[in-house]
Design goal:
The chain has 403 residues and is α/β, with parallel strands linked by helices. The protein has one domain: TIM Barrel, CATH 3.20.20. It is built from 18 helices and 10 strands. Strands 1-2-3-4-5-6-9-10 form an 8-stranded parallel beta sheet, with helices on both faces. The chain is globular and about 60 Å long. The N terminus is likely disordered.
Length: 403
Amino acid sequence: MAKEQTLVTFAEIDISACAPARDLLFETMAISLPSSTLRGKALLDQVSIQHLPKVLLHEHLDGGLRPSTVIELAKENGYKGLPTENASDLAAWFHRGAQRGNLPEYLEGFLHTTSVMQTAESLERVAFEFIEDMYHDGVIYAEVRFAPVFHTEGMLTQDEVVAAVVRGLERGEKQYGVQWGLIICAMRHMQQSVEAAELAIRHREIGVVGFDLAGGEHGFPPKKHVEAFQAIERANFYITIHAGEAYGPASIWQALQYCGAHRLGHATRLRDDIEISADGTMQLGKLAQYVLDRRVPLEMCLLSNLHTGACSSLEEHPFGIFFRRGFRVCLNTDDRLMSDTSMTQETTLATELFDLSLNDLEKLSLNAMKSAFSSFDRRLEIIFKRIKPQFAEVRARMDGPPV
């Protein structure tokens, strides 16, 4: 890129939709130290993380509903299976259920969310509210994924399911300005992965940007679905795969070398292929070195990984190791309802736990946007007209006279 392209200012672009958030960001900053010296807790005292420009690549549509929406949709659709009809109690129920330390039990809550997402109206509403939530969380671009096969009990076809979700996302973008991409998931334990791949390809012109394989890893290796991934590759389309969350490096290796993954969901167990000596130096195994060298993006989800048992504590999460070594990592939420999280929460946790600077936070947003399945031109536009200018303005105000 030409150097002058990095000098886009707020005056040169239309940011009417994000101006209130930008103003609030600076109102909450008590500037006293230059941006280059602030890290971790000190940075959190100076900057509103909520209003920094963030990019989300890994969130499940059926894992991020508002508790109140779950209750309202259950009433509208006649679903009687909820454990409570009190929104606060229901939120607490989902959070407790997600914190049992393993992936299968973590996934049990999806029975309720998918059960209330069986009509075109409910799907459109959930998708719209997703964009609305992203706007209030400071997310400027988001990719959201789901498995349409779970939403056909109300007699919708999978094509109709996708169309309803796209309508909600489009309506949300029109109102809030948050750009998006939709990822279609196949499920490891099901046989319809080829059909899911074809569904994704069929709807790429209306907003579907990629294909994913989700679900429990044990006993369901990604190579069992290689035909679906070959269909995606033949269509010159994009692949992300849940790998290395509940199973070891072999799952990651298969995702890359059998299935052609362009990104990896979670990939926490890549840590098993890295040795750290007493003096802090790292020795990468062949798989980790390949991931590093090829700049394979790692979609990291701190709280979700803690809740599923993918890491023993947040302090031990491999994000810090990966980020320091230069892997292309980005932060994500995975399931906002289940893990009671947001991009603001994930970024705040990472900043404090791993002593991140403002430059580090900008790098995370850039990593994510570079790795998005959106078009090259669209990624450049968001990077140079949104991410870099907003971080530059924050930095300039922090480095200027005290306010």
